[in-house]
Amino acid sequence: MPIESATLQADPLADPDWQEPEAPVERLSWLRLGVLILVLAGLGAGGTAAVLHLRNTAGPTAKSWAVPYVDVTLTPAFDFQDPSANPANDVALGFVVADPQDGCTPSWGGYYTADEAAGSLELDRRISQLRSAGGDVMLGVGGLSNTELAVACADQAKLTAAYRQLIKRYDVDTIDLDIEGTAVADTASLQRRAAALATLQAEGTLDVWLTLPVTPDGLTADGLAAVRTTLEGGVSLRGVNVMTMDFNTGATSPDMLDLATSALNATHKQLSDLYLRLGVKLTSPQVWSRIGATPMIGQNDVDAERFTVADAQGLAQFAVDNGLGRVSMWSLNRDAPCKGTFTNVVVHSNTCSGVTQDSLAFSKTFADLPGSVVGASGRDSVAIPDASPSVDDPAKSPYPIWRLTAQYVTGYKVVWHGVVYEAKWASSGVDPSAAGDASTPNPWAVIGPVTSTDAAPKPTPTVTGVTAQWNTTTMYVRGDKVLFGGLPYQARWSTKGDVPSTEYPVDPDDPWQPLFTVPGEPV
Q1: Could you tell me if 133 and 43 lie in one domain?
Q2: Range of lowest pLDDT (268-282, 426-440, 468-482)
Q3: What is the CATH number of the domain that holds 265?
Q4: Is 52 helix (H, G, I), strand (E, B) or coil?
């Protein structure tokens, strides 16, 4: 990017459209100049390509990036890998925070380690499935709840290692730092975070977004200072994403679209001025490309504030008209009308919007931004990684192999032809890989492919103290407990010579009831 100061000159080869201003914005001290060289080294690494890209896409035909948030740890899990449930091509997964027991260790929502999320949430597999269908993920770090890593971890080396671990584990090239609450003004953590991110950007390609609170008048003073601290720490920011929600203006019927666009326009002015003060002159389209908007769809935390589908349509048009770099929303989990007890009741829910809408109405509105129309990437149907009639290896399958005669309940997971599926409702005899339609829908949802690191599921006993080994000649009566293959069973009725089943799920008409759980069974 071009630099303007008393000692630095713009490079016309880096940006042919650069025009030197009539007077310098601000004279830089030698100390400050040294800091800026570090800052702009990251910006300059991809400067020419970035400027050309912005020049080609800014304006009425700009291709704003639709990347809605998914609350990963919320129950029930949202199938972001399934285009029928998620019209967007890319998603922002939230949120990675500090482990409550070890502030320098990442966790998902304070509940799951990365390995636990891979097992309990099928997160790695879902990401793989999304990518196989042409999509991708951005990693959301922080959020209002729990504690962000940079706040909890004061050890610079361990903090950098924690971020590095996340980037490598999920193979991401974009990270979103959601800084809220008291963390916005925590200068020490802001500096630690910037140092860690600058180190990681020096090691490889990494786009960094800062997500910050906003008012109708733009970023707060603390928010603007957070951006400046990050830039002065040597980080090349991809952009600043402002949370256009919870404005709390005191109005009884606030116009959420008007408040959002006011906040975005004000942020544009603030960032233009900030970059100038740091010696970097950006054009108006270049600044817009570094701004994102994230509304809370439907009912906000503030009772009077409701972001409607019409507001979403207006924001999408604003994004296209101005070349906004990014449009997100909180959250995909909420993109549905409230039902049952909450029908026609003003409510703030994690799983519905609280406003009148069709399911996925918000997602479809933003997914229709230029460059991300549903179907254009081939994601109008679920892509099965391997539908060939290959033979599944029980030793390398993380869940039981699907069986034609087995009776499956809602939530049960199986492996079939190298792919993991989950039962959407009870069924028996329906091939998970079969094509379904509106009249005969398939009861199985695809989760993702079996990976090279997967292994056979390990059953977990639910009772202890069983020592008697099953014997083919013994007459057992109802309630008798035995061990078979090291696992406990209990007789459902009198039986002799019937071998306890090791095919899962064990059928309800089998004489032996398993006293253990198998990975894949719903809890």
Answers
A1: yes
A2: 426-440
A3: 3.20.20.80
A4: helix
Q: Do 512 and 434 fall into the same domain?
A: no
Clarify whether residues 409 and 502 are in a common domain: no
> pTM of this prediction?
0.79
Examine the pLDDT at 427 and tell me if it is beyond 70.
Answer: yes
The answer to whether residue 375 is domain-embedded is no
As separate numbers, helices (DSSP H) first and strands (DSSP E) second, the chain gives: 12, 21
The full length of the chain comes to 523
Residue 9 inside a domain? The answer is no
What one-character-per-residue DSSP string does 228-284 give? HHHHHTT--EEEEEEEE-------SS--HHHHHHHHHHHHHHHHHHHHHHTTB---H
Q: What is the pLDDT of residues 460-496, one digit of tens each?
A: 999 999 999 999 999 999 999 999 999 999 999 999 9
Co-location of 150 and 180 in the same domain: yes
Instruction: List the domain range (segments joined by +) for residue 471.
Output: 458-523
Per-residue pLDDT, 441: 87
Q: What b/e string do you get for 31-50 counting C-beta neighbours within 10 Å, with b at 16 or more?
A: eebebbeebbebbbeebeeb
Instruction: Report the distance separating Cα 264 and Cα 269, nearest Å.
Output: 9
**What are the φ/ψ torsions at residue 329 (nearest 5 degrees)?**
-160, 150
CATH number for position 498: 2.10.10.20
- What per-residue confidence (pLDDT) applies to 45? 38
43 is a domain residue: yes
Place of tokens 């610079």: 156
Closest to 69 (Cα-Cα) out of 85, 55, 54, 88 = 88
Reported confidence tier of residue 8, pLDDT bands at 50, 70, 90 = very low
Residues 341 and 482 in one domain: no
Provide the β-strand partners of residue 211: 178, 241
In terms of pLDDT, which residue wins out, 499 or 441? 499
Query: Residue 3 domain-assigned?
Result: no
Residue among 20, 148, 180, 203 flagged as catalytic: 180
Known active-site residue 180: yes
Query: Do both 273 and 412 map to the same domain?
Result: no
Mean pLDDT of the chain: 85
